[in-house]
Structures are given as C-alpha cells and as structure tokens.
Known about the structure:
Elements: H1 2-41, H2 50-85
Amino acid sequence: MNESVLLAFRETVWIILKLSTPLLLISMIIGLVIAIFQAATQIHEQTITFVPKIIAIALLLVVLGTWMLTNLSDFFSAVMTYATRA
C-alpha cells in the first residue's frame, strides 16, 4: 500500500513537471530577451514583460493543448484504473 502511494506521488510530480516545463521555459526566455532589451534601451517599465509573455503562453497552450490534455487524460485513466483494482 505504501509503495503504491509513493508511486502515485512520483507519477503526479512527473506529470506536473512534464506539462509545466514548456510554459515555464518560454516565459523565462521571453523575460530574458525583454530584460536584455530593457537594459540596452534604459527602459525599465514593468508592464513591458507582461503582454508578450501572456501572448506566448496563450499561443503555446493552443499548440500544445492537445498533447497536454492527452497526458492528463492518460494519467487520470491510469489512476482510476488502479483505484478500481485496489
């Protein structure tokens, strides 16, 4: 019983990391590019980073949404299959 809980926890953490990594990476890359631009131009406005990040995240969700939903559905099915056997 204890092993199965640890396995479920490990798989949950793995799916969270797998689904959030692309979004976090794009957000970090855009933030870095905008920070370099702000340092080069001496423009230090906080709202400049917000809009490009939101647009990029929205586009990435459109592109990767099916993949993310498929992973979540497979994970949920696996959890429910195991829960019904236990």
